[in-house]
Write a structure and sequence with these properties.
406 residues, alpha/beta, Rossmann fold, 8-stranded mixed β-sheet, 5-stranded parallel β-sheet, 16 helices, 13 strands, 40% helix, disordered C terminus
């Protein structure tokens, strides 16, 4: 790859091209414009050298313009970002069929554009083909064994760490149907909720699913109920819900589910499908008692194998009156098998209040390091193995930092 990333901005509006050109001014980029006038809609038609990245702004002829991308062999298409109309499902579906890396809805959010470019630049730098970036899908259910144990916080930050690696397509599913809070933890505002997705489940495919996900700047995709949606578990059609889970599994390599403490048809489906179930508790006897009861219910009533269930002690304090050994004996679990997330009230509270995940808010916090280690454990890596996670995260953040300064 060249020293500079070659970016072509293309479209029919000279005004928009000028704005995009200014937004992309950066010493690491070589930006060129391709104004499309009468004739071919294909932004790559007749060019002598293909760019590394194509940023394609759609006009009122959006569907024809997206279709024109198919004129180029798939192996020769550059990584493409499309900027198009919101809620145009046909354009979105065609874009994904054409292998587009991102579809950004208008009005364009500059931060989303810069973050999308940063992720693509990271992939180009590592020379990892897009089709090789995802491994077999892994679903993890995170469950609070008592109210206030911090399962939603853990689910959000585990998903964010996995997405920030830059190699995984991560979906976060908020199944707190009445008081879901994950959108606030990420400071994103979903335009389409879980209820709408369920209503459309029979018509959805993997391409259309993308429109029902709220996107975080890290690339993490969130599906959650909207604030004005009132849902009861008994109102959810299990077949349609299963269809949503199937689509998530087909289109994301990592799925994190924030699951309320309950045993019903909805949760049973998740427990059955999950590769890992994290039961989150705290160092207090009431929480440990409830954790033990829930674990036994999952083991006996749902017949989930014990090796798929892990216990997480959140806000762990080695000086607590309830010691790890006490919990170990009470639950019959070896001390080394617990996942420990240390107590750091101030930084965690700040992270939640401002909607910035811990990896971005307090990178060097012991809580952040424990969550990163937990993600490694779920991935099957040896504890303490750094792999290239930190390097990739730092690389992406450095690129993004350069973009902001530029």
């Amino acid at each position: 790859m060249r020293d500079k990333i070659d970016i072509m901005v293309a479209g029919r509006s000279k005004t928009v091209l000028g704005v995009l050109d200014k937004q992309l001014q950066n010493p690491n980029y070589n930006v060129r414009q391709r104004h499309i006038s009468n004739g071919h809609s294909n932004p790559l038609y007749g060019i002598s050298e293909s760019p590394d990245i194509l940023v394609f702004h759609l006009s009122a002829m959006g569907e024809d313009e997206v279709n024109s991308l198919f004129e180029n062999p798939s192996e020769s298409r550059p990584a493409t970002i499309i900027i198009g109309p919101a809620d145009n499902m046909k354009c979105i579906r065609l874009s994904m069929q054409a292998g587009v890396r991102d579809y950004l809805e208008e009005p364009l959010n500059d931060e989303e554009l810069q973050s999308s470019l940063a992720r693509i630049c990271g992939d180009l730098a590592s020379n990892v083909p897009a089709e090789q970036q995802s491994s077999e899908t892994m679903m993890t259910a995170v469950v609070s064994t008592k109210g206030g144990c911090g399962a939603s916080f853990l689910a959000t930050n585990l998903a964010h760490v996995m997405a920030s690696e830059g190699r995984e397509n991560v979906a976060l599913l908020d199944l707190d149907l009445q008081f879901g809070s994950l959108a606030q933890y990420l400071d994103v505002k979903p335009n389409h909720g879980l209820v709408t997705a369920l209503d459309m489940a029979d018509q959805l495919d993997g391409i259309a699913l993308n429109a029902y996900m709220a996107k975080h700047s890290s690339g993490l995709a969130l599906m959650s109920p909207l604030d004005d949606e009132i849902i009861l578990p008994r109102d959810i059609d299990s077949t349609r819900f299963g269809r949503i889970l199937d689509l998530l599994k087909e289109n994301y390599s990592r799925i994190i589910v924030d699951l309320p403490r309950q045993i019903d048809e909805l949760s049973a489906d998740i427990y059955e499908r999950a590769d890992h179930i994290l039961l989150v508790t705290q160092q207090e006897f009431a929480s440990v008692r409830d954790a033990n009861r829930l674990r036994n219910l999952i083991l006996t009533e749902l017949a989930v194998p014990a090796d798929r269930i892990s216990m997480v002690i959140n806000r762990y304090d080695k000086n607590s009156a309830v010691e790890l050994g006490d919990i170990s004996r009470s639950m019959g679990i070896d001390k080394k098998d617990f996942i420990l997330i240390p107590n750091s009230y101030k930084s965690v509270a700040e992270s939640i209040n401002i909607g910035i995940p811990m990896l971005e808010h307090a990178r060097n916090s012991q809580v952040t390091k424990a969550i990163v280690e937990a993600s490694h454990q779920l991935e099957g890596r040896e504890p303490g193995t750094r792999t290239d996670l930190v390097g990739r995260v730092m690389s992406n953040l450095n690129v993004l930092s350069n973009l902001v300064r530029g």
